[in-house]
Amino acid sequence: MTDVIMEISAPEECPDIVSAAIEAALIHRGRSGEITVTLVDDEAIHEINRSYRNVDRPTDVISFPSEEGESIAAIPDGFLGDIIISVPRAQAQAEEYGHSFRRELSFLAVHGTLHLLGYDHMTEEEAKEMFGLQEDILKEMGINR
Predict the structure, then answer these.
(1) How far apart are CA 77 and CA 18, in angstroms?
(2) How confident is the model at residue 37 (pLDDT cuts 50, 70, 90)?
(3) Which tops the pLDDT comparison, 18 or 66?
């Protein structure tokens, strides 16, 4: 189950897009669980990024897993964590990359979900795996560039 909280004025289809992308990622990875998503503006995500990651700039998506490391697999149907997405950043990136807002928002939701499931992109090998999974999930959803 996905709970989407809209803290800003955003296109009304945002909760449906985010929920579908998260569901697709969970199904693809054979997982289930609860995730809370908060849609914010650049100012709010900038503050979160500064407070929790010591990075003094806005970003597009931040994930906060409820568990980390090996313990993630121990709670297969529990609360997986929180995802925060900047809607203005998603809109700007969609335009910059030349694809739809739906694709960009879906990408960010899938990306955040994979982080909650323990995936990361700190090394080249991790990045290859995670970004490959993201593209596979989006293709399964029928969302292309």
Answers:
(1) 19
(2) very high
(3) 18
